[in-house]
Design goal:
Elements lengths: L34 E5 L15 H6 L1 H7 L3 E4 L27 H13 L3 E6 L9 H9 L11 E2 L22 E3 L5 E3 L14 H16 L4 E4 L38 H12 L7 E4 L8 H4 L6 E3 L3 H4 L4 H18 L4 E3 L8 H4 L8 H6 L9 H16 L4 E5 L20 H5 L43 H5 L5 H14 L6 E4 L4 E6 L3 E6 L4 E2 L4 E5 L8 E2 L3 E6 L3
Parallel strand pairs: 1-2, 1-11, 2-3, 3-7, 7-8, 8-9, 10-11
Antiparallel strand pairs: 4-6, 5-6, 12-13, 13-14, 14-18, 15-17, 16-18
Helix pairs in contact: 5-6, 12-15
Length: about 550
């Protein structure tokens, strides 16, 4: 039985410009073609005015979410956390951070989304817990050699007195991946020191995560996004192998890498699939896995997670040849796994693509952020045009599309956040040489004015720039040509047009033309304008005149002539 949630200071609802379509929530294959909207809860909407986004704010925005035309909402971590890494340091996997809400409010959110035919996907963070997790606190108290410490990776140090780390392994956030505790042992953390890694060779850890999956599936969750899926199992034989640098370029492609994408991880996920298949319909899952391209399909096999994120387009320059090659490779990998492709342009860890596309190819994004977005200068008109074009291209492809909150508003990276406002641990861990990911996590603008552009009655936990006013939801809602209404039109059409897995590429210079089954196609012009073939223009990211010329840096969908 679901209990009503307590709430106050409810946010003003926004009208829905596109009718909500009816979806079949019993379809076991929904994830194959889903449009999934990623919510970073602390920055989406603040219902109680404390400057932090919460479930009350999310519940109030359900009509907005449903009106976008999405199939599912993916919630980044909302669990109790010390926020050493934006919520990815989880202190309790089966509760809601009290700053964000309650389990009763979570149930209300699931019910509200399901009532509108929108599914719910939650983030699971299995590589590490937060240092405030009950298990880690028990490990610290229990001492060396205890069963409590065996849930994590504790080891004695090197040197005469154990004063040196057990290995040369480094953290993603800079510095050693080992931290020493008062009794002299060291524990492994491939991310922040507040994120101790679990030992996935321990059966107790595996059973605990089966329990966690069931806890949320029993509450109506439809799927799971698996954080750092490639990192769970490590080569823990001693003496430890040297691994002084973390880079995708040095990963082995045979399943024997020291820290990442080891063959043993697939045994873990086969166990997860058994749990997920206990439900009707089976719960979906998608892996965040950084691995050699040839090994990504392994995570997406039917007896494992089913899908894996494809990040290739995030790394590609704005170029027709590069985009086509990347798309074809992704489709081929999905076919090899019997899965469907996933398409991503932005997320909570990436510089927003409207900014990336407005910068010269090859720009060092870390250096650009450290210059507060001034070196080199950002061409926002170009970046937004390309971002709109790229969105239509991805939404036209077979598979699932992931939309990060704010990209439907055409938001740029907030590159000029002052150093003293930064929250990302990367800033401290890298000796103030890398601003980190906060520029993509600034709270959303809902109105052009107010103390936080409508985010909540109080301020916002990260400062919002003045230019947010022109991208506010209420402003774009009233503008038929806005990016928001472009996304609404495209998502509505995406649901109506024939789907299926079929797609072929037509040869077109300096453009990508994807011909879909069912008599429609998508054409993206990259470096130069292109003339569209005959057919009804269904939607376009830029105006198409009577001469049927699609401008450069634009995309159009066409229905083929009868």
């Amino acid at each position: 039985m679901r209990r009503p949630a307590s709430c106050c200071n409810r946010l003003r609802p926004y009208r829905v410009a596109v009718p909500t379509r009816v979806r079949d929530l019993t379809d076991p294959d929904w994830w194959r073609t889903a449009a999934v909207y990623q919510v970073y809860p602390r920055s989406f909407a603040d219902g109680n005015g404390d400057g932090i986004g919460d479930l009350t704010g999310l519940i109030d925005r359900v009509p907005y979410l449903a009106g976008l035309g999405i199939d599912a909402v993916w919630l980044s971590p909302f669990y109790p956390s010390a926020l050493a890494d934006g919520g990815y340091d989880v202190d309790d996997y089966t509760d809601v951070d009290p700053r964000i809400g309650t389990l009763e409010q979570f149930d209300e959110l699931v019910a509200a989304l399901h009532a509108r035919g929108v599914r719910v996907v939650v983030d699971i963070v299995p590589n590490h817990s937060g240092s405030g997790h009950r298990w880690f606190q028990e490990a610290l108290a229990a001492g060396a050699g205890s069963p409590e410490r065996a849930r994590y990776i504790f080891r004695d140090g090197l040197g005469e007195h154990g004063e040196q780390p057990p290995s040369d392994w480094v953290s993603h956030f800079g510095g050693s991946a080992w931290t020493r505790v008062p009794d002299g042992q060291w524990y492994l953390h491939l991310f922040a020191r507040e994120q101790p890694d679990f030992d996935w060779g321990n059966p107790e850890v595996r059973e605990e995560f089966h329990r966690i999956l069931r806890f949320w599936a029993d509450r109506g969750v439809d799927g799971f996004r698996v954080d750092v899926a490639h990192g769970l199992t490590k080569d823990l034989r001693e003496p430890f192998a040297s691994y002084p640098r973390i880079s995708r370029d040095v990963l082995k492609d045979d399943g024997t890498d020291v820290l990442f994408d080891r063959d043993e991880v697939h045994e873990v996920f086969r166990g997860w699939r058994t749990v997920l298949n206990e439900y009707d319909p089976p719960r979906a899952a998608v892996a965040e896995a950084w691995a050699a391209p040839s090994r990504l399909p392994l995570y997406a096999r039917p007896d494992e997670l089913g899908q894996t994120f494809e990040f290739d387009l995030v790394l590609e320059p704005w170029d027709a040849v590069a985009f086509r090659r990347s798309i074809e490779n992704s489709l081929e990998r999905a076919r090899a796994a019997g899965a469907s492709s996933t398409w991503v342009l932005s997320n909570h860890d990436l510089v927003r693509h409207a900014s990336r596309f407005g910068l010269p190819a090859g720009t060092d994004l870390t250096a650009w952020l450290m210059s507060h977005g001034t070196e080199p200068a950002e061409d926002r008109a170009l970046g937004l045009a390309r971002a709109r074009a790229a969105a239509l291209l991805l939404l036209a492809l077979p598979g699932s599309a992931y939309v990060y909150q704010g990209e439907e508003l055409g938001l740029f990276e907030v590159a000029d956040l002052p150093f003293d406002a930064l929250e990302d641990p990367i800033w401290e861990r890298n000796g103030h040489t890398d601003k980190g990911r906060d520029g993509a996590r600034v709270p959303l603008p809902w109105t052009p004015d107010g103390p936080s552009h409508g985010f909540g009655a109080g301020g916002a936990h990260l400062p919002q720039p003045g230019w947010f006013a022109e991208h506010a939801v209420s402003v774009e809602d009233a503008d038929p040509a806005s990016t928001l209404n472009l996304y609404r039109r495209a998502l509505a059409l995406r649901a109506e047009l024939p789907a299926g897995d079929g797609a072929r590429f037509a040869d077109r210079p300096d453009a990508v033309e994807v011909v879909r089954d069912g008599g429609w196609r998508c054409i993206t012009a990259f470096g130069a304008p292109t003339v569209l073939p005959e057919g009804e223009v269904l939607v376009s990211s830029a105006p198409v005149g009577d001469d049927r010329v699609l401008p450069a840096d634009a995309t159009a969908w066409l229905r083929d002539p009868a």
